[in-house]
Each structure stands twice: as structure tokens, then as C-alpha cells.
Amino acid sequence: MTTQNLARYVDHTLLKPEATTADVAATIAEAAELGTYSVCLSPSVIPVEVPEGLKLAVVVGFPSGKHHSSIKAAEARLAASQGVDEIDMVIDVGAAIEGLYDAVEGDIRAVRDAAPRPVVLKVIIESAALSDDAIVAVCQAAERAGADFVKTSTGFHPTGGATVHAVRLMKQTVGDRLEVKASGGIRTREDAEAMIAAGATRLGLSSTRAILADETAAAGY
């Protein structure tokens, strides 16, 4: 895979709590320079201007997912009104662990209803915290609720980030009906390409430049 092709899989991400306005501007500029698919930012920094050809994504219910569904929906509605192209929402992971999949589906549906297509909805399931059975059930709930993507991780959970196993299982579950985003703990170009080989069609990276240059990235999202 060429570096240019790999870059088009990437949501270049800045979600650090300490990020400043200057950091946001630098991240957008870097995303445009590297040719990534999008830039993914925290909701408080929206609205922002991005260059033509670069998509804008924002997180919702991030990073815990423990926000009330009405709050997640309000975040999503505001983001959609501010012109974002994509929303990456976090489910209630505890509900998934308990097997409360109807509640998970309802949570996702609230966000989908608040930000209908053409806004793209990605559902962060925190796969490292879930059993394989729960991963399958949550992916199925996301599909029923109208999501466009299922996504492995926030990158903030102590259980870890994306794995090839989780990506492959998620892809097997949703087939070609939804897409799969791998994020969290992707440190090398080898990692990135392994996730794509397993079925990921998007990657969440903060150290995009280092990974595209085939250098080991520092710990982070």
C-alpha cells in the first residue's frame, strides 16, 4: 500500500483535554498536508474551518459513554448544525457488559435520530472491554439503530485499544453493510496495515505522520 493510499484511511485525531486553539489549527493543517480522509476533534472546538477535501468528524459522549442518551443526542444535533460530516459516539459500555443490548441500541438510535444522514455515524464499542459475544451483539445493535460504522475504541480505556481479532470479528458481524474503524493503540505502519487487512476501512490515528513514515509512534490515541 502506498503512503498516499494509507493516508486516505486515516481520521487524523486530536482529543487531548489540554488541546489549545493553536493545537487544533496545527492538527487541521497537518491532516491537509498528509492527505488524510478527515480530522477528528472534540466538540468544544467546533465550529472550525477545514480545507476543501478534508472531512470533519467530532466525538459525542466521549470518552466514557456514560452520558444520558438525551445529552449525547443534543451533542450530535449541535455538531450536525455546525456542519460536521461525521460523528463518533461512545456507547454505554457497562450496559453492553450487562447484556442490555436494547438499551445500547436505544442510545445509538437517539444519536442517529438527532443527526440523520448524510452525517456519518460511527459507534465506539470499546471492544477490549467486551467479550466476543458482546462485540457481536453490540455490532448488531448498531446496525439495527442505523449506524454507518462500528469502531473499536476510544483510546482512553484502560483495557486497551484496537486488536486484529476485534476488527476481524466486527467485520464478520457487519459484513459489507457497515464499515469498521480501528482506533486506539495503533503505533506502527505494520499495525495500521494489519487492521486494514482484517477489515478496517478507517483508522483513528493521532501520530499519523510517524506511522505514515514507518516510525513507531509515541503512546497516545
TrEMBL record:
The keyword Amino-acid biosynthesis does not apply. It is found in: Cytoplasm. It catalyses: 2-deoxy-D-ribose 5-phosphate = D-glyceraldehyde 3-phosphate + acetaldehyde. GO terms for molecular function: deoxyribose-phosphate aldolase activity. It comes from the Bacteria. Its EC number is 4.1.2.4. One of its GO terms (cellular component) is cytoplasm. NCBIfam families: deoC. InterPro entries: Aldolase_TIM (IPR013785), DeoC (IPR011343), DeoC/FbaB/LacD_aldolase (IPR002915), DeoC_typeI (IPR028581). CDD domains: DeoC. SUPFAM superfamilies: Aldolase (SSF51569). It is an enzyme of class 4 (lyase). Its main location: cytoplasm. It comes from Microbacterium ginsengisoli. The active site is at D88, K151, K181. Catalyzes a reversible aldol reaction between acetaldehyde and D-glyceraldehyde 3-phosphate to generate 2-deoxy-D-ribose 5-phosphate. Pathway: Carbohydrate degradation; 2-deoxy-D-ribose 1-phosphate degradation; D-glyceraldehyde 3-phosphate and acetaldehyde from 2-deoxy-alpha-D-ribose 1-phosphate: step 2/2. Keywords: Cytoplasm, Lyase, Schiff base. The gene is deoC. Pfam families: DeoC. This is Deoxyribose-phosphate aldolase.
